[in-house]
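Table 4 source record.
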Amino acid sequence: MAGAEVLFRFPTQTKVNDFEYRWTGGEHDGRVIFAAVKAAGADFIHIASEGRDWLSTATLGGNLTITQLAKVAQVPVIANGGMHHPAQAEVLEEGHSDIISLGRGAIAIPD
């Protein structure tokens, strides 16, 4: 389909019922996965958190986040979830993602 864009959406490495879980292959597996996404023709990568604190669910180890790792695909990376306060947009300034998407944090009465 001409003009179509391809978006790959991933959850962060934690699980809905296990917030302490991290990818067992960590950075290595992430590099393999995101290189494959690039080869598949991705135009964007969207990585969604479980809605808690974005940075804690996105961190692989040390200071590296899954969204920073996704940048190996050389396409725009969108961070989502757990960004309930405007100050959390700092993930852009710190190079964790290229774009953020907001849901609940942008709604006046999120309940």
